[in-house]
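re: ur msg from earlier - yeah i can do the HQG complex, just paste it... oh wait u already did. ok heres what im feeding in:
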Amino acid sequence: MKDLTKLSKFIALILRHKPETIGISLDHNGWANVGELIEGINRTDGYSIDMETLEEIVRTDEKGRYSFNDDKTKIRANQGHSVNVDVELKEEIPPETLYHGTAERFCESIRKEGLKPMSRLYVHLSKDVETAVKVGSRHGKCVVFKVKTGEMSRQGYKFWLSENGVWLTKNVPPIFLEELNEKR
Ligand code: HQG
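and the outut:
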């Protein structure tokens, strides 16, 4: 099997954070031109891609990170951006509880300031503890916070659900957070 992980990570970097790495830009809605993306990647040392491989990456990505437009002339990341684009997220009422996995070393600051988007546009929340553990473990020893999203929503905080099922919000004040680690 082809190892598409390296290419997929590079595409995430381009479509979420640094399109300029390959000399392209994203439009207002986060779309990149597919032809430009393929040419740009092929101009980069150590990377090569064709349309078939790009389609395979989009189709098989385990988190559904990317979408094509209808005629596959454009591609974008569904969430996770640091560049300021509007991916036309759907505002939705969240479930009563969502989860956020993070690293132990961030907890003191999170207890004080709540959850902030940091380098991204939104705070990312997971629908179950298992997913939150995976997300948090990317950063170090994992701690999971339970987020009282129902209460937040009733108080007027907005939530969006990305095309690939990630819950997003702008910030979570500490009063809506409850640490779960000691209970697991
Ligand atoms: C932490 C992955 C200190 C926050 C995942 C996190 C996700 C604070 C880190 C998506 C803080 C930012 C996003 C505060 C938040 N003080 N630290 N006040 N507030 N933090 O990677 O949520 O594989 O930007 O807890 O699956 O870990 O890329 O966010 O640990 O859905 O598709 O600051 O990325 O998806 O880290 O992950 P990140 P995240 P992909």
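cool cool. The first strand starts at residue 32 and ends at 33. ping me if u need the other ligands too
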